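Module 6 notes. Inverse folding takes a fixed backbone as the condition and produces residue identities as the prediction. Think of it as a translation problem where the source language is geometry and the target language is the twenty amino acids. Below is one complete input and output pair. Work through it position by position during the lab.
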């Protein structure tokens, strides 16, 4: 089991907008220089996530899949501070990071990918998903017979094990689907594929099903990653959530609302229950999925709906603060005209 920050924010951006320029140096940023009080809000989302997880499962979480696999050095430092043993992100983040560190192995990339990493001086292990295998499940196998899809996946894993040779026992292949509803595109919600896949893997003489926590407990050794280039599982950057004029406008409106929140809280204008309600509403507004939909590449109807919902949530925050919402929240932020695969609810890694 893993946990994700409470309101599903992009933590590296909440902490520092400049994180977006680590993987895309020329990307445009919001007018605001930084999200107000970003460090404290990032800490709030992680603390609240740990609290809720512990409440429902009776144990503290050992691992974190940060929202959208979004990581940065400060983000991993924060997770380690909260006692997490592992986190995970996307393959492109590792590729960018190894390239920046002068350690990308090119054609021998399987030597680089299928293992955990740690930052200098850090204890937290970071795993990076296999984009190719994850996307096969997310986008390709739904069109195949379940037995054939399972056989193909196992064949890919067997090939990896053969390529790694004597080091195969020291490697782990991370297959991660970031909450996509891939199963609804499979016949019978992927029952036959999943049944065949787990049967084949559980009975295989060379492949072993495991978890990140078990890998760590069994002593899998991490490789040091000299430099982490901030990014997400989507393209290895943050362009899905920042950089487009509509996305940046959404951030600026959020920043304006956060300034109002901070002012009202400092003035002590809210009682304890009202402040708690405002904090929860702010967390909703800080969620990443609003900006996921803003921009030119998504369908107009979906963009319009998320645009209206986002502005309504911001208005609700102002009402909870006892403030009058600004007139700018009556104006549409984004217009979409794209026709992406699966309607935009899922994205390929590249």
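Target side of the pair, the amino acids:
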């Amino acid at each position: 089991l893993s946990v994700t920050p409470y309101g599903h924010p992009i933590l590296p951006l909440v902490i520092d907008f400049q994180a977006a320029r680590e993987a895309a140096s020329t990307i445009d940023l919001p007018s605001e220089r930084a999200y107000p009080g970003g460090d404290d809000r990032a800490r709030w989302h992680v603390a609240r996530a740990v609290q809720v997880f512990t409440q429902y499962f009776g144990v503290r979480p050992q691992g974190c899949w940060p929202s959208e696999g979004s990581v940065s050095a400060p983000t991993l430092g924060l997770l380690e501070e909260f006692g997490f043993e592992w986190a995970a992100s996307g393959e492109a983040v590792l590729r960018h990071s190894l390239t920046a560190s002068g350690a990308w192995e090119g054609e021998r990339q399987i030597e680089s990918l299928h293992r955990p990493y740690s930052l200098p001086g850090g204890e937290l292990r970071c795993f990076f998903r296999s984009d190719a295998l994850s996307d096969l499940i997310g986008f390709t196998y739904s069109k195949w017979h379940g037995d054939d899809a399972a056989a193909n996946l196992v064949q890919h894993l067997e090939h990896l094990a053969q390529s790694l040779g004597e080091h195969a026992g020291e490697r782990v292949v991370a297959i991660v689907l970031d909450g996509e509803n891939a199963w609804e595109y499979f016949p019978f919600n992927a029952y036959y594929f999943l049944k065949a896949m787990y049967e084949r893997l559980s009975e295989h003489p060379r492949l072993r099903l495991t978890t990140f926590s078990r890998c760590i407990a069994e002593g899998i050794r991490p490789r040091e990653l000299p430099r982490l280039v901030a990014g997400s599982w989507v393209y290895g950057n943050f362009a899905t959530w920042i950089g487009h004029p509509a996305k940046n406008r959404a951030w600026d409106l959020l920043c304006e609302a956060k300034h109002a929140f901070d002012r009202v809280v400092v003035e002590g204008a809210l009682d304890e229950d009202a402040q708690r309600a405002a904090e929860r509403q702010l967390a909703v507004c800080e969620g990443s999925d609003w900006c996921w939909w803003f921009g030119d590449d998504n369908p107009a109807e979906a963009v319009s709906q998320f645009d209206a919902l986002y502005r309504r949530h911001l208005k609700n925050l102002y009402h909870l603060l006892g403030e009058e919402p600004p007139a700018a929240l009556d104006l549409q932020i984004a217009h979409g005209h794209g026709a992406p695969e699966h309607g935009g609810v899922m994205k390929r890694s590249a």
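Reference fact for the lab report: The mean pLDDT is 93.
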